[in-house]
Amino acid sequence: SSELTQDPAVSVALGQTVRITCQGDSLRNYYAIWYQQKPGQAPTLVIYDRNIRPSGIPDRFSGSGSGNTASLTITGAQAEDEADYYCNSRDSDGSHLLFGGGTTLTVL
Amino acid sequence: QLQLQESGPGLVKPSETLALTCTVSGVSIRSSSYSWGWIRQPPGKGLEWIGTIYYGGGTYYNPSLKSRVTVSVDTSKNQFSLKLSSVTAADTAIYYCATPYCSTTSCRFDFWGPGTLVTVSS
């Protein structure tokens, strides 16, 4: 079976750039989706199909990917970006869905 | 604007069946533009996809839960539901309903309910 691997925690200084990564074999064939989750709230979609932002998501959020790795980059991190971030993809056979374990982002 | 709201018992006894409902507003559940899904999150842990029902009735479930899960749609009430049988404490989680939009290259959850906490305990 497939899985998606994320670093458990990442920190960034206010205003600096941070990259959150997601690794998995399924990412060679399927786009990564990224969600932001703040405490006590449901997840919110921030990037889909590798690098498309839904309406209302600031342009400091961007996505990229190569091979088995997808990345979410926040350029000029703000205090309100402190949250958990999850990647999501179809699994290698395409019929099931996977979530990464999540990355907790701390903005210092 | 599409909105989702989960409802159901907050406490379920071990070995019993967890049953949750997601009420859809703002769109007909019969719409061919939408599919319907469930995701859960144990307290302090990550997200886990449970299952999805697609337009036309096809269902896909997490292989680790497949033997215990049923997702169905009630068009008369504009709702869809989750049933998870033979629950244990490991099934204690916040359960979210959500709308998956799937293409050949991805499957994203555009809209989410606020979530409902279900605790499995005697």
The number of distinct helices of chain B, counting runs of at least 4 residues, comes to 0
| Parts with pLDDT < 50 across at least 5 consecutive residues of chain B | none
Instruction: Please state the overall shape of chain A, judged from the principal axes of the Cα atoms.
Output: globular
For the biggest sheet of chain A, the summary is: 6 strands, mixed
Rg calc of chain A: 13 Å
- Spell out the helices and strands of chain B N to C: EEEEEEEEEEE
Description of the molecule:
The complex is a heterodimer of chains A (about 110) and B (about 120). Chain A has no helices and ten strands. Chain A is mainly beta and about 110 residues long. In chain A, a hairpin with a 2-residue loop joins strand 6 and strand 7. Chain B has about 120 residues and is mainly beta. Helix content of chain B is about 0%, strand content about 50%. At the A-B interface, strand 4, strand 8 and strand 9 of A face strand 5, strand 9 and strand 10 of B.
Quick description:
With 108 residues, chain A is mainly β.
Per-chain topology:
The complex is a heterodimer of chains A (108) and B (122).
Chain A: E1 5-6, E2 9-12, E3 18-23, E4 33-37, E5 44-47, E6 61-66, E7 69-74, E8 83-90, E9 97-99, E10 103-107
Parallel strand pairs in A: 2-10
Antiparallel strand pairs in A: 1-3, 3-7, 4-5, 4-8, 6-7, 8-9, 8-10
Chain B: E1 3-7, E2 11-12, E3 18-25, E4 36-41, E5 48-53, E6 59-61, E7 69-74, E8 79-84, E9 93-102, E10 107-112, E11 116-120
Parallel strand pairs in B: 2-11
Antiparallel strand pairs in B: 1-3, 3-8, 4-5, 4-9, 5-6, 7-8, 9-10, 9-11
